[in-house]
């Protein structure tokens, strides 16, 4: 892998992965980050990377749904591998307005696959980043394995499931070298503050109420984003062609417990402004429990997560406390003005 086309690199996990790849991993090639810069993509996340790695990092503002533009990028940068993060990623938004989810997550993935099909001999790896939400919801017992049948419940998870199927179909039908990772809920620095953990941290710091959906007993399996990054790179390098790998943190937690934990940690340093937990109307079709069995990734590729929930949450809280300017800018959409002067 010399020239990786990395889509959605200016979002939460993409940003962390680019930073990991260039600063910490053994990757020696070039990354071409293609990002549409939706509300969730922030090019400022990688300003230092643009400066520090001028030969190895290229940013292009583009929509993966733009077939002609994508074809041009594959040719110009001699792309030999793809790491596909770009997506609409927030379940609540998909419930209110699914359109962009269908476009980006399904049609966008299809476009990238077509680009690869037209230059199949040059492509050594298409790695598709997906979610455990494609498997649906668990009861009290059991875990998602790579053999669990797909049963997505939200427009978001249904669109991700479609894209997974397309990627695998391009392998079976055309021989595209590919891997897929289905990962549990991530948290950490740079996460857009619409998702549970950053939303609760910021609301608690700012004295706003803390919204908990339904009875607060829905369970998620949390993974610190850096551990997701090491998993992705492990799979890209050593994963078996055509295979899917589940990635998880082995940390199952009820939402209400996460909220209480964040409040307790903030309270230790007198940063807790308010802990008004407010039970609010439940999300329609709210999946009850996700839990990941990542034995395959552990046994075949020797990966396991490093961060405990406690250390991960502490690091995340510190990041949001230290980066209030970032928070203000993504919330106000201020960086959208910056995008217009820099990239359009
Ligand atoms: P995010 O919403 O923070 O970032 C998505 C990025 O994709 C943004 O930079 C956005 O500008 C870009 N994008 C959106 N539409 C685009 C388009 N049409 N063309 C080009 N770029 C576009 O998402 P995230 O949380 O970083 O998630 C990244 C990937 O990981 C997604 O595929 C998501 O399904 C998957 N995933 C996320 C989690 C999680 O907990 N966040 C867990 C498992 C899997
Ligand atoms: P979220 O971060 O949106 O991730 P996902 O829906 O992909 O799992 O939500 C995590 C859990 O937290 C989910 O069960 C919904 C719940 N939740 C709340 O209780 N309150 C909130 O304000 C949000 C955003 C989520």
Which class do the helix and strand fractions yield?
A: alpha/beta
Residues in helices, as a percent range: 40-55%
Strand order of the largest sheet: 3-2-1-4-5-6-10
Order of helices and strands: EHEHEHEHHEHEEHEEHEEHEHHHH
The CATH topology of the domain at 3-191 and 223-249 and 286-306 comes to Rossmann fold
Instruction: State the separation between the terminal residues, measured CA to CA.
Output: 30 Å
The CATH class label of the domain at 3-191 and 223-249 and 286-306 is Alpha Beta
Strand and helix layout:
Elements: E1 3-7, H1 12-23, E2 30-35, H2 47-52, E3 57-61, H3 67-76, E4 81-84, H4 91-96, H5 99-117, E5 125-131, H6 155-174, E6 178-183, E7 185-187, H7 196-206, E8 210-213, E9 219-224, H8 225-238, E10 243-247, E11 252-254, H9 255-268, E12 277-280, H10 295-301, H11 309-322, H12 324-332, H13 334-343
Parallel strand pairs: 1-2, 1-4, 2-3, 4-5, 5-6, 6-10, 7-9, 8-12
Antiparallel strand pairs: 9-11
Helix pairs in contact: 1-8, 3-5, 5-6, 7-9, 7-11
Spell out the key features of this protein.
alpha/beta; binds thymidine-5'-diphosphate; three-stranded mixed sheet; 344 residues; binds nicotinamide-adenine-dinucleotide; single chain; Rossmann fold
């Amino acid at each position: 892998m010399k020239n990786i086309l990395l889509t959605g690199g200016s979002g939460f996990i993409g940003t962390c992965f680019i930073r990991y790849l260039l600063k910490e991993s053994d990757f020696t090639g070039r990354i071409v980050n293609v990002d549409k810069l939706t509300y969730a993509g922030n090019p400022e996340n990688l300003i230092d990377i643009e400066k520090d790695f001028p030969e190895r990092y290229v940013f292009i503002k583009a929509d993966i749904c733009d077939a002609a533009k994508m074809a041009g990028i594959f040719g110009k940068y001699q792309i030999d591998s793809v790491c596909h993060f770009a997506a609409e990623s927030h379940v609540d938004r998909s419930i209110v307005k699914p359109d962009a989810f269908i476009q980006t997550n399904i049609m966008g993935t299809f476009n990238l696959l077509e680009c690869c099909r037209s230059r199949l001999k040059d492509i050594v790896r298409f790695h598709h980043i997906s979610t455990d939400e494609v498997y649906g919801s668990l009861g009290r017992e059991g875990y998602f394995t790579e053999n669990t049948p797909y049963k997505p419940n939200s427009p978001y998870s249904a669109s991700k499931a479609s894209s997974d199927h397309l990627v695998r179909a391009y392998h079976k039908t055309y021989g595209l070298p590919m891997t897929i990772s289905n990962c549990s809920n991530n948290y950490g620095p740079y996460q857009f503050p619409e998702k549970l953990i950053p939303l609760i941290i910021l609301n608690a710091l700012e004295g706003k109420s803390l919204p908990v959906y339904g009875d607060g007993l829905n369970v998620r399996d949390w993974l610190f984003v850096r551990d997701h990054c090491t998993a992705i790179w492990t799979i890209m390098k050593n994963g078996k062609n055509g295979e899917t790998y589940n990635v998880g943190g082995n940390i199952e937690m009820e939402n209400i417990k996460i909220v209480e934990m964040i409040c307790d940690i903030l309270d230790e340093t007198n940063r807790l402004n308010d802990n008004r937990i407010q039970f609010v109307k439940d999300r329609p079709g709210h999946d009850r429990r996700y839990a990941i069995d990542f034995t395959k990734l552990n046994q075949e590729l020797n990966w396991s997560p490093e961060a405990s929930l406690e250390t991960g949450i502490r690091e995340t809280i510190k990041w949001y406390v230290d980066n209030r300017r970032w928070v203000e800018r993504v919330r106000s959409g201020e960086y959208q003005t910056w995008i217009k002067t820099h990239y359009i």
